[in-house]
Structure formats: C-alpha cells, structure tokens
Design goal:
The protein contains 2 helices and no strands. By secondary structure, the chain is an all-alpha fold. The chain has one domain. The longest helix has about 60 residues.
Length: about 80
C-alpha cells in the first residue's frame, strides 16, 4: 500500500472514530435522560401508592363507601407500608 492510500485510510478511520464517538455520546445522554424519567415516574408511583394507602385507611376508618370502593384494585397500585 502506498503512502497516500495509508494516509487516506488513517483519515477515514479517524472520521469513523469521531462519528462513532458522537453517536456514543448521544446514546449515553439519551440513556441518562431515560434514567431520570424512570426515577421521576417511580417517585410519582410511590406517592400515588401512599395516597391510595392513606385513602384506603381513611375509608376503613370512617366506614364510608362510594366512589372509592375498590380503589386499590382499580389503580393496580400496591399498598405497602
């Protein structure tokens, strides 16, 4: 392989490395954004589960029935704690 072909091959590899690095950085940012969104959704789910648990306790305490009957089953949230 002559010198000019080697130099071109090196330039091509460098360009490919830059392109790959740029894509990897974009994917890393997207992954981090997804993790942040997952954490926010998880926190919101925990708050909703707490609200449902408190509502269920209030319903059990007051004996009131009505629109909140079966709230735990309707939401599908786990009432732990």
């Amino acid at each position: 392989m002559d010198l000019s072909k080697r130099q071109q091959a090196i330039k091509d590899l460098q360009a490919h490395a830059v392109e790959t690095t740029t894509k990897l950085e974009a994917m890393t940012k997207a992954y981090n954004d997804l993790n942040i969104n997952y954490k926010l959704l998880s926190d919101e789910h925990d708050k909703m589960a707490k609200d449902v648990r408190l509502l269920k306790q209030l319903q059990d305490y007051t004996g009131l029935k009505g629109e909140f009957d079966g709230i735990v089953e309707k939401t599908g949230l786990q009432c732990t704690g």
